[in-house]
């Protein structure tokens, strides 16, 4: 496995792969790999000849007071894990090479970015779409794999790819969870042992909502009732502050007025004002 830090070099390599007729897959990440990241890499590995994983803690998507300076980072550890799943290249540029002096362009998707994570993290999705557009242009992938854990990010990227005519197949990959149900996340490393029950309330609330739907089959249960169930479970933990809990359409991200196969329960919860976790699940999978 090769580690490339220069944007110029990765683009030349990608051009060479393309001219040899090789299929390229990109997995964009911010590092500190866990099984969720590794599953995206394995997914890319199945479909392409060359897997490129980008590892870049993108300052443009962090707001003031967020955890940019504490974000976990260990390139050596991550390289070992990526190599084990057959990644060909880790692209790990530095901040200065991605945003050199004079950098003045923002790629911005409107509409989809105004609610949910976009409402509590102003500018976050502009940072995501700008860096992902750059990564697409640098690595020239045929496909890119993103996790469904970041459901809004996935919807926003699909919109950007459609709107800007990127010839890239965007693949959404299911959420990988710990045995106890907690959605894997690099930010889980911030959790102290006594904060785990609060963190688990996200996935437990999803299970409770799904059970309520099952137990009410035949009767009407509204998205508002289900939202209440989820909120109650999370707020049993004084460490938890709900950023949002909603039931939305999985494509438009508009709040649902009735349940359908498109209905996605989505949530962001802050634990002890320090650790912002997200989770989601479709409610009526066929
Ligand atoms: N548990 C998971 N299952 C599937 N995909 C995941 C999971 N966690 C992260 N991903 C995906 O990995 C990609 C890189 O995400 P990132 O490096 O930000 O990891 P993260 O664990 O989500 O970090 P954070 O805790 O900061 O949100 C994204 O497409 C994200 O959706
Ligand atoms: C897509 C991404 C790598 C862009 O920095 C980041 O938002 C992430 O890790 O999900
Ligand atoms: N996985 C999304 C990266 C972020 O929260 O900034």
Q: What's the Cα radius of gyration?
A: 19 Å
Q: So, CATH architecture of the largest domain?
A: 3-Layer(aba) Sandwich
DSSP helix fraction: 25-40%
Which stretches are low in confidence, meaning pLDDT under 50 for 5 or more residues running?
none
Give helix and strand order, one letter per element, not per position. EHEHEHEHHHEHEHHEEE
Give the number of DSSP strands: 9
Q: What is the assigned CATH homologous superfamily of the largest domain? A: HUPs
Please tell me what the overall shape is. Answer: globular
The name CATH uses for the topology of the largest domain is Rossmann fold
User: In DSSP terms, counting alpha (H) and pi (I) runs of 4 or more, how many helices?
Assistant: 9
What is the structural class?
A: alpha/beta
First and last CA, distance: 40 Å
Q: Major sheet: size, sense and barrel closure?
A: 6 strands, parallel
| Beta-strand fraction estimate | 15-25%
Strand line-up of the largest beta sheet: 1-4-3-2-5-6
Q: Overall pLDDT, averaged?
A: 97
CATH uppermost class of the largest domain: Alpha Beta
Ligand species: adenosine-5'-triphosphate, pantoate, beta-alanine
Pathway: Cofactor biosynthesis; (R)-pantothenate biosynthesis; (R)-pantothenate from (R)-pantoate and beta-alanine: step 1/1
Protein name: Pantothenate synthetase
Organism: Desulfocapsa sulfexigens (strain DSM 10523 / SB164P1)
InterPro entries: Cyt_trans-like, Pantoate_ligase, Pantoate_ligase_C, Rossmann-like_a/b/a_fold
């Amino acid at each position: 496995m090769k580690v490339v830090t220069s944007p110029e070099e990765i683009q030349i390599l990608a051009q060479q792969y393309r001219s040899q007729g090789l299929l390229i897959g990109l997995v964009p990440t911010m590092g500190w790999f866990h099984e969720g990241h590794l599953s995206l890499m394995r997914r890319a590995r199945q479909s392409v000849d060359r897997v490129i994983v980008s590892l870049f803690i993108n300052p443009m998507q962090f707001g003031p007071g967020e955890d940019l300076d504490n974000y976990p980072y260990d390139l050596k550890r991550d390289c070992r894990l990526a190599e084990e799943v057959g990644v060909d290249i880790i692209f790990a540029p530095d901040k200065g090479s991605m945003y050199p002096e004079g950098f003045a362009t923002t790629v911005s998707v409107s509409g989809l970015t105004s609610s949910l994570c976009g409402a509590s993290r102003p500018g976050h999705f502009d940072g995501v779409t700008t860096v992902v557009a750059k990564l697409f242009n640098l690595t020239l992938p045929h496909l890119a794999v993103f996790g469904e854990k970041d459901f809004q990010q996935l919807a926003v990227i699909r919109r950007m790819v459609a709107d800007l005519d990127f010839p890239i197949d965007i693949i959404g990959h299911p959420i990988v969870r710990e045995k106890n149900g907690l959605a894997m996340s690099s930010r889980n490393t911030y959790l102290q042992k006594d904060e785990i029950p609060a963190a688990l309330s996200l996935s437990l609330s999803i299970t409770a909502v799904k059970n309520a739907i099952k137990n009410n089959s035949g009767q009407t249960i509204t998205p508002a009732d289900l939202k209440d169930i989820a909120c109650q479970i999370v707020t049993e933990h004084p460490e938890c502050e709900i950023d949002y809990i909603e039931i939305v359409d999985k494509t438009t991200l508009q709040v649902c007025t009735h349940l359908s196969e498109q209905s996605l329960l989505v949530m962001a919860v802050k634990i002890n004002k320090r650790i912002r976790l997200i989770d989601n699940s479709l409610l009526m999978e066929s």
